[in-house]
Amino acid sequence: MSGAGAGTRLFIGTYTSRRPHVDGRGRGIHVVDLDIAAGEFGAVDLAARTPSPSYLAASADGVHIYAVNETPCFPDGAGGVSAFRVEGRRLIALGMRSSVGRAPCHLTVSPDGRYVVVANYLDGVVSVLPIAADGGLGDAVAVHRPAGNASRAHHAAFDPVTGELLVTDLGIDAIRLFSLGHGGGLVEDRARRMNIARDAGPRHLVFAPDGSGLFVVNERAGTITAACRDGARFVVAATVAMSDADYGRGHRASAAASALRLSPDARHLVAGNRSRDSIAVFRVSSDPLMLEFARELPAGGRTPRDLTFVADDLLVVAHQDDSTLAAFRFDHEVGTAQPLATVEAATPVALLEA
Predict the structure, then answer these.
(1) pTM to 2 decimals?
(2) Using one digit for the tens of pLDDT, what is the confidence trace for 236-277?
(3) How many degrees, rounded to 5, is the angle at CA 22 between CA 344 and CA 144?
(4) Rounded CA separation 53/105 (Å)
(5) In contact, 79 and 101? CB cutoff 8 Å
(6) Helix, strand, or coil (residue 191)
(7) What is the pLDDT of residues 6-15, one digit of tens each?
(8) Cα dihedral sign, 101-124-270-277
(9) Domain segments of the chain: what residues?
């Protein structure tokens, strides 16, 4: 339905069981249609049953969707990675493979479409699974296990300039850089690791459209860090607060910042703040790389876990603890958002337009 003009379709990742941080009541991956002109939701239905699909990614052609299963799925306690074929509002299961780590929380498809890369939160493991001809997954062909037990891998993204893999590590306050070989081999370049401020808790990142730098949302500190590309490295240029709240310092202090998205025109960044049920809006530019706090907006519900732009000016927010989605009309000129509609959706934590 995406690109049909009048509407688009969102697949919704959920938690399906109780965990220490959430009372999961989803049934798997849900689906909802959204009228772009009116900003109104259709009915929320079940697209596929699968345990705690807390993050979703699509193949470049939108034919297949991949989900992490953020719960023990195998005898060794590893989580799962599931593949699906899209058939309208239904997802046809193509099987589950081990994530090889514990609590997989993010995944991405490699630029060449040959692999799915998975970030496992509880042990920091990064795993690489091959994509078969039918869109299903094979067993992991590469696994990176960090030294010690401090790492908490949270997000994986490919550099649009170099093709390297960047992984945010909330546990060690750093972004790790890897090369992904033609056969799926994974090698970390520790000398180029990008360190973030102590106790910041880097969670998600987005690249500037021209590849000149990147932006990182820091979960514990409640800040956004901008980093410029400097040869083969990224150098921190600025760190800006998401609000005027004082979260203190130390491992237990947390702003509970969540998702980070760049607006379609690349003039604004938006980030969820679960501790304040708000959305922080920043003005950005790429030449030179610039980041400036603009305003803080009500998120329209409790615990904004994910948010995404659809079409040109619709912003959709998933409220984990309210079990709702909210649609806003985003004003690209001033960075404000007008509430349009809400719909009930059980424990939504990930949004994917496909």
Answers:
(1) 0.95
(2) 999 999 987 655 554 444 679 999 999 999 999 999 999 999
(3) 115
(4) 9
(5) yes
(6) helix
(7) 899 999 999 9
(8) positive
(9) 203-298
